[in-house]
Amino acid sequence: MRQSSVISRRVAAAAVSLVLATGAAACAGPEDTGAKGGAAGKAAAGAPQKGGTLTVLNSEAQSDFDPARLYTSGGGNVPSLVFRTLTTRNREAGAAGSKVVPDLATDLGRPNKDATEWTYTLKEGLKFEDGTPITSADVKYGIERSFAAELSGGAPYLRDWLVGGDTYEGPYKDKKGLASVVTPDDRTIVFKLRKPEGEFPFVATQTQFAPVPKAKDTGAKYEEHPVSSGPYKVVENENDGERLVLERNEHWDPKTDEERKAYPDRVDVRSGLDEAVINQRLATSSGADAAAVTTDTNLGPAELAQIGSDKALAARVGTGHFGFTNYLAFNPKVKPFDNPKVRQAIAYAVNRTSVVNAAGGSALAEPATTFLPEQKSFGFTPYDHFPAGRTGDPAKARQLLKEAGHPNGLTVTLLHSTAQNRATSPEIATAVQEALGKAGITVKLDGQEPNSFNEKRWSVKDAPGLFLSRWGADWPAGGPFLAPIFDGRQIVTNGSNYNHAQLNDPAVNKEIDEINKLTDLKAAAVRWGALDKKIGEQALDVPLFHPVYKRLVGKDIKNVVISDWTGVLDISQVSVK
């Protein structure tokens, strides 16, 4: 399924963007360990109040501010202040925040018996920023325009899932509209799918489901002043999102929106800043920076070391975990990785302690032995099929190499990126190299610049036998985590392929289909966890670590909420007074 591969490319390539911006791209960045927002929730004393200006200091611009073009999960972070969707993420800390809840709709959707049709009813009293009612036709039109080539960039799930979605070209070329999205009345919208999709409520959180009034659509220029359905409206957009100013939408009715608190009167997003400058400004908290946050900049090891000796600053650091796994990938089509015992030997040889240290230390990374992240919503099921302890088991690795016909060890090449991202970068590659060396495996490092690195690892034809990789989910469930990586029908031979092992196991494919039929998300999670454990027996990858995210907030910020869905501060909950 090529569309799923497109999704995966955005997930894998821009995963950090979502981790950091939560709305800039899919998968593309953290779990709260305390009460609302953990320690950072205590940054400023007193109950949150309405009023004031929230400043957002970012390195990357909030570009393409059009609901059709944004690749978001859960509605995004800054985007969710302007665009409401049929469903959204639960705006609570920790595991509770990984749930999907109604937004514009009255419920999570009503599926037919086999989950190939989903029906939604809009709440009463919904209005755009100009006071006109929001109807199901507006939601339908918003979805249809996301198919237009000139508005590309958003999550492409609907192209794959909707009947006729693979050939529809959007409302500018096809005036008849998309027949698989039906609006029998102003408050009802029905989606007809090509196959069962029990996780459809998660997809309905993405901004493609935001309503757009057809009469106000200005095509590619719509991003300059999109019509708001949320608590804020755009009053200024400079240099394609480099400076974005939001003010209250007076027609937003909080009675119809249980999720967004919308405390500040104004939100001022300033981008293009150096990450070190952002963290310094937040730490100093002078003037407007006292009421500032960031949605795309983490703290690094050096900054955390400095903060650790300052209790006041440490109290303003929020910690979170996003559904993300960094791993060592095998291509079994390349020798000697076609031999399971060679793959197992490498799994035993890896020293996860040294890898975690290379990733920034235990404050920024946690060792992983499962492909699924350690969160219940994904279906996390603990397993370690090749237990090597925290520092590896070179003796066991040597034994397996001997059984595989390599009694004197072997030499392999490891592809990695030259980007300094502490994920697929030289530091991680060197840690793997040193650990495997102790087991008699000589590792030659092949560092390539990011574009070349990605092209190679995502190519069926040119993918090496061993490379560093990472994966993040478009929503907190097992489907978008396991299917793109292990569903044989998603192998792409003429484009970007993410099934690194080129696994095409009929039993795995069938189980994915069976789980997709389930609308009971808890039951589905259990099945995803069992599937992860079963696939893990084949040693098709070596999970290395799950990243941890640390963010600093200004001294006057209150009500920091960090959920297991995004892993970062939820801007819709923040108060500055």
TrEMBL record:
Signal peptide annotation: 1-28
Domain of life: Bacteria
Entry protein name: ABC transporter substrate-binding protein
Pfam family, one: SBP_bac_5
Record's keyword terms, sorted: Signal
Residue ranges of domain Solute-binding protein family in the record: 99-489
Keyword Iron recorded: no
